[in-house]
Structure formats: structure tokens, C-alpha cells
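# step 3/5: fold
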Amino acid sequence: MSGKQKSAVTIFNSHIDAEDAVRELQKSGFDMKKLSIAGKHSGDSVSGNYNTGEGVRYCGKLGTFWEKVLEVVYGSALLIIPGIGPVVIGGPLVRWIISALDGAAPVAGLSAIGTVFCSIGIPNDSVLAYEMSLKSHKFLLVADGSAEEIEEARKILEKTKATDTTVHHS
């Protein structure tokens, strides 16, 4: 094992395609504690994301999708991100964003998500593309792990209906 950390960021056009990819990664044995998902909240009138000790409940247009996905990743949030809008996030990305909001200096011109992506070694041009994907109501999966774990995840993700999968060195 090389010990080098990497991240694979994958873009999906639909929540169905993202959910299928999460299911494939879970079936392969990928550590769900290392998987994050983010997607722009659909604008319906009543929405929320809460945990009552019995799992996450998400009220809104994509409620069933978010509840299924947020059951298998660890941690969730519904954040209003300036420049992007309301975004539902699950997995380690939640902790990273909260840490960035609590103390890290934001990167000029980037959202909190963009700042986090920069902090884990993702180049600015890719960060801007990921922010634009979120603004366009696409879904991002972020897998983090060793070079070997991410190579295995990349192989699985490339067999899904992803529009793009890019591996970045952390």
C-alpha cells in the first residue's frame, strides 16, 4: 500500500444515476465512511433535513432518494451556499465544509465547497467545474482513500452512468 491519499470526484446528471453508483460502491465493499455526495436542493415549498435518532429524514421533492443515500454515508447537512444555493451533502464532505466555515480562510471566488476541494488538492479549474455542476442541479460523488481504494472505486464508477470521473492527488 502506497499510503498516498487520493480523491475521485464523479459527476452525475440525475439522482437515479448517483444512487445506482452509491449502490455499486457499497456492493463492492467500498468503505461508505469515505464516500460523500452533494446535490442542489430542488426548490419545492416545504423542505428540510433532520435526524431524530432513527436515521435522516429529508422532506422535499427527492426525499426518498436522499433518505436512501444518506442512510449509507455518514453525516448529512442541508446548507445554503452563496453562489450555489441550497445543497444537500452527505459523508465526510460535511465535516470538511464545517471545518472550512469554522476557521479556514475562504479561497477568493470559491464557495465553501470549492474552498474544501482546493484544500484537498483539487485544482482550481476542476473546482470551478464542480461548483458549476452543482449549480446545474447535477450530483457529485466524492470518494476519498488510498491510491488502491480510489483506483478500485474509479473502475466501478466508470461503469456507471457518470458523465465524468476524475482522480485527484490529495
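# step 4/5: annotate
The chain is about 40% helix and 30% strand.
# step 5/5: archive (pending)
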